[in-house]
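$ ./design --mode recover --in tokens.txt
reading tokens...
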């Protein structure tokens, strides 16, 4: 009878049985273990997102020395969470604390793969994607940044960083092999690559041995486009090779280096500015001239222009001991003879009228490129918007050249006012008729001389370079520009889609019905929009119903994936510079890519319970984290 009663009680009251009590205790311990691990993951995520080092001098929380940001953060969190405090001070199993560098790497790998898998899932749904790649050196290691561009389910154009790949060789074959291997590892079909965008280096752009050639062997429709940002920089670099401009820029660099690389000389310049300028604390110091990004170089020109007079005062103090009565710091300082000699030479160079006028001309004429340089860096820009901006700026320079008398006259007047502040009078150099490597065009006045020998040749160079560098961009747009409604519905243009349909026949759902679908698309646009037709691919793809216009949508999707620039790779290198500091130069490649993914995708929300589940399944764990059979409530 007693046995039967116990059996009935086990059925009716299972929570009173000993096995169930053991299961309840184990379940509660499992919940506590998961909570502890989630706190550890949160600490790792915080360090990764904020791009701060996890490890310190030693990997122990007790003892002397710096335990690192990760363990220090856990120590702070433990003051507010008793469960975590017990785990840190008296863990149930000392070999299962889960705070070692090896566990850090495993958790970083889990978190980065969660981010990457979400991105790859969207790319597979999009089917077509573009690749962007660039290479940079970090602590004598060649790192290849791989980024992908695609249209997501919300019809948004996105550019996403995928990973850093360590390169032992930066030949075109090696880089292409690394890209294809990376895509294969991530189960992305390389035949779905449509555009590919790199810089103009031979290893990337060569039609014989470059990366683009190797990629097109795998995906013949992966057309190559030269990064428009690099093209714009080449326009500026090549245009600045005329003698007057080249000499001016060289002198600017020397002046910037002269002040920036000496605390004493820079202190004198800051003192002059503070004494002469109201609200001097808002004035930024001189910037070095960036060799690769025009936006940064334009800022340096702007600072140079604003500080020009005060640089002259500072050089006069150093070279000739002037302005002693104005109370500048270091004005009474003992300057080395070499410093005085350099200051005297720089002072003579930058106070000459040809330097002043050349600098003002370059600063004013190239200011028209500042806006386009910044806009091209946007990841949501499409190639047609880039083409319109390039066309517009090119027209501006043709207009400046046509009206050179008026526009240069303003630059000349501005330079004269600038020269008056330092006591320089307008003049022009002696003309040597037999010289062929200098500006020798005869002129009656200084203004006419510099207009003929400086302004017009400079604008000529810019206009010619625009046409030469952006010819490829025009060719890429010429094939698909008819998809833009403002072009398609224009009475002046009749787009021809035969070549486009023939090129992408295998990608279109029903190419034989394309022209019938195009008629419906035109009717839809004329009924839906009166005057405000979409003027870009990014806007057009938003209003295109994939089910109703399947062929049009595919072509719009391919057009939207063409990257105007490879700036996403450059942004990833900025993250690499913040991440791979000198103190972290020995970091492993997998840990580096994982931390880069977490930091770059800062706003990505991760489910910590999923992270714990993935971590628990990687290996058998000493800490009980999940039930083998049932999910914990």
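writing sequence...
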């Amino acid at each position: 009878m007693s046995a039967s009663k116990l059996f009935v009680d086990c059925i009716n009251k299972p929570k009173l049985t000993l096995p169930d009590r053991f299961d309840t205790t184990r379940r509660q311990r499992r919940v506590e273990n998961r909570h502890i691990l989630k706190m550890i993951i949160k600490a790792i995520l915080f360090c990764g997102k904020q791009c701060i080092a996890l490890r310190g001098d030693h990997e122990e929380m007790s003892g002397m020395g710096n335990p690192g940001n990760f363990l220090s953060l856990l120590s702070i969190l433990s003051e507010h969470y008793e469960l975590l405090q017990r785990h840190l001070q008296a863990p149930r199993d000392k070999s299962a604390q889960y705070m070692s560098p090896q566990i850090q790497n495993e958790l970083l790998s889990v978190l980065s793969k969660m981010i990457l898998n979400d991105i790859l899932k969207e790319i597979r749904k999009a089917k077509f994607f573009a690749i962007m790649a660039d290479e940079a050196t970090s602590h004598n290691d060649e790192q290849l940044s791989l980024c992908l561009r695609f249209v997501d389910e919300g019809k948004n154009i996105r550019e996403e960083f995928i990973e850093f790949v360590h390169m032992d060789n930066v030949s075109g074959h090696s880089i292409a092999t690394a890209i294809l291997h990376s895509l294969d590892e991530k189960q992305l079909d390389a035949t779905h690559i449509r555009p590919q965008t790199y810089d103009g280096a031979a290893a990337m752009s060569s039609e014989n041995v470059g990366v683009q050639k190797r990629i097109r062997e795998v995906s013949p429709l992966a057309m190559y486009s030269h990064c428009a940002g690099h093209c714009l920089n080449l326009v500026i670099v090549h245009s600045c090779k005329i003698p007057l401009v080249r000499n001016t820029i060289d002198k600017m660099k020397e002046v910037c280096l002269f002040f920036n690389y000496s605390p004493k000389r820079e202190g004198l310049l800051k003192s002059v500015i503070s004494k002469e300028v109201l609200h001097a604390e808002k004035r930024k110091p001189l910037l070095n001239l960036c060799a690769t990004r025009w936006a940064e170089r334009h800022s340096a020109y702007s600072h140079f222009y604003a500080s020009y007079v005060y640089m002259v005062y500072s050089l006069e103090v150093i070279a000739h001991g002037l302005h002693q009565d104005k109370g500048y710091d270091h004005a009474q300082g003992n300057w080395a003879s070499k410093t005085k000699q350099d200051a005297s030479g720089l002072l003579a160079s930058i106070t000459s009228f040809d330097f002043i006028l050349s600098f003002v001309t370059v600063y004013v004429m190239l200011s028209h490129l500042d806006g386009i340089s910044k806009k091209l860096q946007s990841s949501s820009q499409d190639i047609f918007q880039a083409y319109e901006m390039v066309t517009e700026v090119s027209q501006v320079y043709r207009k400046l050249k046509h009206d050179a008398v008026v526009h240069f006259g303003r630059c000349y007047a501005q330079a004269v006012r600038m020269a008056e502040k330092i006591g320089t009078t307008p003049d022009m150099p002696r003309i040597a008729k037999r010289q062929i490597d200098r500006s020798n065009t005869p002129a009656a006045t200084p203004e006419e001389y510099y207009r003929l020998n400086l302004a017009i040749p400079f604008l000529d160079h810019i206009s010619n370079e625009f046409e030469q560098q952006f010819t490829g961009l025009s060719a890429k747009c010429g094939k698909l520009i008819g998809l833009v409604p403002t072009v398609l519905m224009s009475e002046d243009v009749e787009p021809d889609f035969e070549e486009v349909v023939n090129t992408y026949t295998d990608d279109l759902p029903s190419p034989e019905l394309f022209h019938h679908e195009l008629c419906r698309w035109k009717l839809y646009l004329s009924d839906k929009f009166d005057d405000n037709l979409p003027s870009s691919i990014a806007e057009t793809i938003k209003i295109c119903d994939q089910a109703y216009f399947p062929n049009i949508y595919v072509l719009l999707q391919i057009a939207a994936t063409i990257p105007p620039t490879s700036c996403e790779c450059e942004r990833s290198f900025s993250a690499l510079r913040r991440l791979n500091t000198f103190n972290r130069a020995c970091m492993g490649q997998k840990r580096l890519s994982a931390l880069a993914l977490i930091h770059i995708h800062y706003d990505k929300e991760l489910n910590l319970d999923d992270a714990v589940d993935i971590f628990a399944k990687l290996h058998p764990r000493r800490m009980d984290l999940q039930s083998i059979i049932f999910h914990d409530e």
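exit 0
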